[in-house]
């Protein structure tokens, strides 16, 4: 394969030179090189630098040339929390919400996750894969180069395995990096309403062993919240996951203080996600631990929830990751540029903090920081090229409009807005 040279880069946002997770005030630092070039060999970043130390090229025939036309280059987004594999859509519930019902009320009526579960059951594995791959293509065009995908609309062994097989097929066939999470504990199925603990037992004794044996998941998740799973049930499920080599990445404190953050930290979860309900106590509990707080502002936006106290978390020295939560009920979008805007406008994060949260910190929340999340020699060449922009802040400032001109995945041009 020919090498690639990207020339005429107005600003090369490298994000990091050591791939480390950024915490507290470190999140403000966003290294970049003005007036830069970058070389790719096969699917990896070969080298990059400023035009002042450009040594030229001996044999131009060895290179494909991409002209960045003075645009900005960033590492592609690392979206560490999504439910992108689902069947159909739930816009009727969107209308119900406009008419006054809450997310919890809709769930209680058998809507919400249970509604998606019914649609999933009626969808073949092939159709589910095709519907999901359309969304994968959509998010890659939006700059996503790594994504975590959860199961959780199956809610019985056979259907959960069907979802996880679809995620596995996406891993094998899509050009971006995919991590898979088993979320059998997403909602309590109707037939277990009277005895939720029985469903927890089924997850522990029936689902986890098969899923682990067939290596269908990288992580395990539980929706630890009011009306869903308790902290005690969450701990049991996370422990069973750990016994089978699956680390936790959990939904916590979206609808109320659930004890989910504490249990996540106690069980060494990679991340605790949502966190709309977070007080000083939870922040103290997260400090100095390996568990990364992950915020999903498009969910708070779409459901009209309170926003998590991102500023307080960062000012207390915590790291933050941001993700899309792309799902049919609470965030039917994987638009990361919009999430950057929300993070700045609603979470009061600076543009630099938000970009770090969606690149290197997102990579950490999926344990792919050695391959992705920053522009460093040897990393996978998944890159975003924007139109010419005056500053970093221009990205979140231009909300609702994509500035992305080209997307490079595995060293190859995947999307070009001029030819699509
Ligand atoms: O992350 N909170 C739980 N699960 C999803 C919503 C799933 C759905 O409504 O379909 C979330 O918001
Ligand atoms: Fe979620």
Shape: globular
CATH class of the largest domain: Alpha Beta
Chain-averaged pLDDT: 97
- In total, the number of strands is 16
Number of helices: 15
The CATH superfamily title of the largest domain: Metal-dependent hydrolases
Which bin fits the share of residues in helices?
Answer: 25-40%
Q: Describe it for me?
A:
- The chain has 420 residues and is of the alpha/beta class.
- The protein has two domains: 3-76 and 374-416, Urease, subunit C, domain 1 (Roll); 78-364, TIM Barrel, CATH 3.20.20.
- The protein is built from 15 helices and 16 strands.
- The strands form two sheets. Strands 1, 2, 3, 4, 5, 14, 15 and 16 form an eight-stranded mixed beta sheet that branches. It has an eight-stranded parallel beta sheet with strand order 6-7-8-9-10-11-12-13.
- Helix 6 runs parallel beside helix 7 (231-243).
- The longest helix has 18 residues, at 196-213.
- It is globular, with a radius of gyration of 21 Å.
- The model has no long low-confidence stretch (mean pLDDT 97).
- The structure holds N-(iminomethyl)-L-glutamic acid and fe (iii) ion.
- Fe (iii) ion binds at residues 81, 83, 251, 325, 327.
- Fe (iii) ion is lined by residues 81, 83, 251, 325, 327.
Question: Which secondary structure elements does this structure contain, and how are they paired or packed?
Answer:
Blueprint: E1 3-13, E2 32-41, E3 44-50, E4 63-67, E5 72-75, E6 77-79, H1 91-98, H2 103-108, H3 113-121, H4 125-141, E7 144-150, H5 157-173, E8 177-185, H6 196-213, E9 219-224, H7 231-243, E10 247-252, H8 260-266, E11 271-274, H9 280-286, E12 292-295, H10 297-303, H11 310-315, E13 321-322, H12 336-345, H13 351-358, H14 360-364, E14 383-386, H15 394-397, E15 404-409, E16 412-416
Parallel strand pairs: 1-4, 1-5, 6-7, 7-8, 8-9, 9-10, 10-11, 11-12, 12-13
Antiparallel strand pairs: 1-2, 2-3, 5-14, 14-15, 15-16
Helix pairs in contact: 4-5, 5-6, 6-7, 12-13
The chain binds N-(iminomethyl)-L-glutamic acid and fe (iii) ion.
């Amino acid at each position: 394969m020919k090498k690639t040279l990207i020339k005429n880069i107005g600003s090369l946002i490298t994000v990091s030179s050591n791939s480390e997770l950024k915490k507290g005030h470190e999140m403000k630092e966003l290294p970049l090189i003005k007036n830069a070039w970058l070389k790719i060999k096969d699917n990896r970043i070969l080298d990059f630098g400023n035009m002042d130390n450009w040594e030229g090229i001996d044999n131009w025939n060895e290179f494909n040339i991409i002209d960045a036309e003075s645009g900005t280059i960033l590492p592609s987004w690392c979206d560490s929390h999504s439910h992108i594999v689902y069947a159909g859509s739930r816009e009727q519930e969107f209308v119900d919400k406009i008419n006054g019902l809450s997310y919890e009320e809709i769930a209680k009526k058998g809507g919400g996750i249970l509604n998606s579960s019914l649609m999933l059951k009626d969808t073949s594995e092939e159709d589910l894969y095709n519907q999901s791959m359309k969304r994968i293509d959509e998010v890659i065009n939006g700059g996503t180069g790594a994504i975590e995908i959860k199961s959780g609309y199956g809610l019985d062994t056979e259907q959960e395995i069907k979802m996880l097989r679809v995620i596995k097929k996406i891993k094998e066939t899509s050009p971006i990096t995919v991590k898979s999470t088993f979320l059998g504990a997403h909602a309590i199925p109707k037939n277990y309403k009277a005895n939720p603990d029985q469903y927890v037992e089924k997850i522990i004794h029936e689902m986890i062993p098969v899923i682990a044996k067939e290596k269908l998941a990288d992580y395990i998740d539980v929706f630890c919240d009011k009306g869903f799973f308790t902290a005690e049930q969450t701990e049991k499920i996370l422990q069973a996951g750990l016994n089978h080599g699956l680390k936790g990445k959990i939904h916590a404190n979206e609808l109320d203080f659930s004890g989910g953050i504490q249990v996540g930290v106690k069980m060494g979860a990679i991340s605790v996600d949502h966190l709309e309900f977070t007080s000083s106590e939870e922040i103290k509990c997260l400090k100095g631990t390996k568990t990364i707080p992950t915020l999903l502002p498009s969910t708070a936006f779409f459901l009209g929830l309170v926003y998590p106290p991102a500023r307080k978390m960062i000012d207390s020295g915590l790291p933050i990751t941001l993700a899309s939560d792309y799902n049919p009920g609470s965030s039917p979008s994987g638009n990361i540029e919009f999430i950057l805007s929300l993070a700045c406008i609603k979470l009061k994060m600076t543009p630099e903090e938000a970009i770090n949260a969606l690149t290197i910190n997102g990579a950490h929340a999926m344990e792919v920081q050695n391959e992705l999340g920053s522009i460093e020699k040897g990393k996978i060449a998944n890159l975003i090229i924007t139109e010419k922009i005056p500053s970093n802040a221009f990205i979140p400032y231009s909300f609702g409009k994509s500035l992305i001109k080209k997307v490079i995945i595995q060293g190859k041009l995947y999307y070009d807005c001029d030819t699509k």
